[in-house]
Write a structure and sequence with these properties.
InterPro entries: ARM-like, ARM-type_fold, Uso1_p115_C, Vesicle_P115, Vesicle_Uso1_P115_head. The protein has 28 helices and six strands. It is an all-alpha fold.
């Protein structure tokens, strides 16, 4: 009844909030056992959510109470925990076998996420709520869907930077039914997020099953990293860590991201390796997109030889209770060849993936996995080479032009994704080939003419009609995996009829990732520039440096204006919310005071009305008594006259007056 009453009724929500509904609802939650409670706790928390969601006035009032710290406390997270202090194990390792506990925790996490993403919260509150969500998503044994929810609700601008948050992950001991856990080495939250994206939950210890909830968790972690690297200085710092120190010939240690990005593809494919490399391409693209200085730094990355990793993950996950670290990789053999750059390595791996996919013995399902890996390489190269002539020159010098032509020549009724991406990358190589090199625009133009300008434009625009591209949204990266009867070679349990039958049942919950929203938005914003560019004569003069400088200055100026206006809008919204909240509080208090005054006036009026009625009744009684006395006096005078007694003149006059 309560939830129905407050549904889409802000006025009723305000009245109930100021009448103490929050205190009473949390009292019910405490009385019913907190997080371990049953449906009553769930319904009480749902009422709290209904009072707060989309109601800034109630959110401001709720923050003024002593109740916000109860939210993380219900999850066993200490509200007063400092950034430098470690989270207690009672929070990280809990029993989640109670049917109602995960649902109750999900409501609490939803309320915390709502408050941390709304305006008006204090710095301390934002820091506490953000830390709680980070620890729940990265360093707890909570259900996977709860971790995904926690990471998705992290605000774009965290109150504390991810590198400064130290988390202590736990790993379940195999064969103990999740009753025993290994405590792992502490690491920064940023490192834990990267490992989660690359290797999955618990670092892929139990193998890659490509379950939908696991892929959703990795996509949520990818979104957190994307928000974190919005600033150019953060991107540059991450890429610079992959370069040798200034004046030093010693190569830097290979980061997990660079290791996954440069892992060479092997046939038969391993799903875990494909997913790791594909997601590393999406992650690395976040560092380069619209970042010219970062692209320049990335061209100088010289990856070390990438040996197969026999451990279930990177060097990050090492048991803290005596487990030995993985053995170091064997020393690479000395070679006289010049070391390859990262761009060269990616180009070679893309060419190898094309060759492996086109083998005659490749099954349809394995070909789909090769396609997914190729899409990862192409999306990264498209965003890297766009508006970066230096990278275009390096890519063309590695022989990247030749491998893009064959996919574009495929039949029109074939898969449109790879031909469309190859056509877009070829157009970028033509449009931004502005630096001297062996392959010039004049070299590429005959290839474009032979392929057909209309064909290229058709391949590029046809990409948006593919379901894997159309289905992507800001919060939608993970797509259901199509049911197929054949098992992928190299997958544990694959190849047999029984495994295929079991796979058909499991594929209903399996999922995959092809694109992210950042690339889809990039494609929509820039494909028209490429479409126009492929039809331009190769000898046409490119924009001059002064024009480019003026354009950059104009863009920078407009960005500053937009940022300033955005800040002003946010400030006005905050002031409006504060005014609304204060006005609502004043209105409620004023109405209550007026109601009290009205009630007092009604009571006083009723008392005065009763007194008036009593006085009127008394007056009527006195008039009746006076009439009776006058009548008796007249009769007495008449009897006195009849008896011959003397009656005074005054009495006669009075008698005459009475008679008259």
């Amino acid at each position: 009844m309560f939830q129905t009453l407050v549904h889409q009724s802000p006025d009723i929500q305000k009245v109930l909030a100021f009448e103490g509904a929050f205190e009473r609802l949390f009292g019910i939650v405490r009385a019913e056992g907190g997080l371990e409670g049953g449906h009553v706790v769930h319904d009480a928390l749902a009422c709290v959510d209904a009072l707060l969601r989309f109601n800034s006035s109630n959110q401001s009032y709720f923050r003024e109470t002593m109740l916000p710290p109860m939210l993380p406390a219900l999850l066993l997270f200490p509200p007063s925990l400092k950034v430098s202090e470690e989270v207690p194990q009672a929070f990280a390792l809990q029993f989640w076998d109670t049917p109602q506990k995960p649902a109750n925790a999900s409501l609490i996490v939803g309320i915390i996420g709502m408050l941390v993403n709304s305006k008006g919260g204090s710095v301390e509150e934002t820091r506490t709520f953000s830390r709680c969500l980070v620890e729940l998503g990265l360093a707890s044994n909570a259900p996977t869907f709860l971790k995904t929810q926690a990471l998705r609700l992290l605000p774009p601008n965290l109150g504390i930077p991810l590198p400064s948050i130290v988390v202590t992950p736990y790993m379940p001991v195999p064969g103990t039914n999740d009753e025993e856990w290994d405590r792992l080495e502490p690491a920064s939250a940023l490192d834990a997020l990267v490992e989660l994206v690359l290797h999955g939950e618990y670092n892929g210890l139990f193998g890659e099953r490509r379950a939908k909830d696991g892929m959703e968790l990795r996509a949520a972690a990818l979104g957190v990293i994307q928000n974190f690297v919005q600033r150019d200085e953060i991107r540059e710092a991450i890429v610079r860590a992959m370069l040798p120190a200034d004046g030093s010939n010693t190569p830097p240690p290979t980061t997990p991201l660079l290791h996954a990005l440069t892992a060479p593809p092997h046939s038969p494919l391993d799903i875990a390796a494909v997913t790791s490399t594909h997601l590393s391409c999406l992650l690395f693209a976040h560092l380069l997109r619209y970042a010219p200085r970062t692209k320049t730094l990335a061209r100088s990355i010289i990856p070390q030889p990438n040996f197969p990793n026999t451990q279930p993950g990177g060097e990050f996950f090492v048991p803290a209770d005596g487990g030995a670290p993985p053995p170091p990789p064997p020393a690479p053999e000395e070679e006289e060849e010049e070391p390859e750059s990262l761009l060269q390595t990616l180009s070679e791996h893309l060419s190898l993936a094309f060759l492996s996919k086109n083998r005659a013995d490749t099954s349809d399902q394995e070909a789909r996995e090769w396609d997914r890996l190729i899409v990862g390489y192409l999306t990264l190269l498209i965003q890297w080479l766009y508006d970066d002539p230096g990278s275009v020159r390096d890519f063309l010098q590695t022989g990247g032009l030749g491998m893009l032509v064959e996919p574009i020549n495929q039949m029109a009724d074939s898969d449109p994704v790879i031909p469309g991406l190859c056509a877009l990358l070829l157009g970028i190589c033509y449009e931004f080939n502005r630096e001297p090199g062996e392959i010039t625009r004049a070299t590429i133009h005959p290839i474009l003419t032979r392929l057909g300008i209309d064909t290229l434009i058709g391949r590029i625009t046809h990409l948006r009609n593919d379901d894997r591209f159309k289905a992507i949204g800001p919060d939608t990266l993970v797509l259901p995996y199509p049911n197929q009867a054949s098992a992928l070679p190299g997958v544990p349990g694959g190849g047999s009829a029984a495994a295929a039958a079991a796979g058909d049942v499991k594929k209903e919950t399996e999922a995959e990732i092809w694109f992210d929203w950042a690339f889809v938005d990039f494609w929509k914003s820039n494909y028209y520039t490429v479409v126009k560019g492929v039809a331009v004569d190769p000898n046409e003069a490119p924009p001059t440096a002064s024009q480019n400088a003026e354009t950059e200055m104009l863009v920078a100026s407009l960005r500053e204006v937009i940022q300033k206006q955005s800040d002003e809008i946010q400030d006005l919204k905050r002031r409006l919310n504060e005014f609304t909240a204060s006005a609502a509080a004043v209105d409620v208090q004023r109405i209550a005071q007026l109601e009290d005054d009205l009630k007092s006036m009604r009571d006083a009026f009723e008392v005065a009305d009763d007194r008036r009625k009593d006085v009127e009744k008394e007056q009527e009684d006195l008039l009746v008594l006076l009439d009776e006395m006058n009548l008796k006096r007249s009769r007495d005078k008449q009897r006195m006259r009849e008896a011959g007694l003397a009656v005074s003149e005054d009495e006669d006059d009075g008698l005459d007056d009475d008679e008259e």
